[in-house]
Write a structure and sequence with these properties.
With 46 residues, the protein is α+β, with helices and mostly antiparallel strands. Helices cover 39% and strands 20% of the residues. It has a domain of 31 residues. The chain has two helices and two strands; from the N terminus they run H-E-H-E.
Length: 46
């Protein structure tokens, strides 16, 4: 895992994060993803 963090920090690898949501919206995020309506990654933040 440390190697991946180093690559992200160095800018070698990028992560496209489209939004962040609370765990209470996890089901909604799942449905949007299945429908192809998300772009990038959605972070679930407690």
């Amino acid at each position: 895992m440390g190697a991946l963090v180093e690559l992200v920090e160095a800018g070698t690898v990028s992560v496209d994060i489209s939004s962040s949501r609370p765990p209470s919206e996890l089901a909604d995020v799942h449905h949007l993803s299945q429908a192809g309506r998300t772009r990038g990654r959605v972070l679930i933040i407690p």
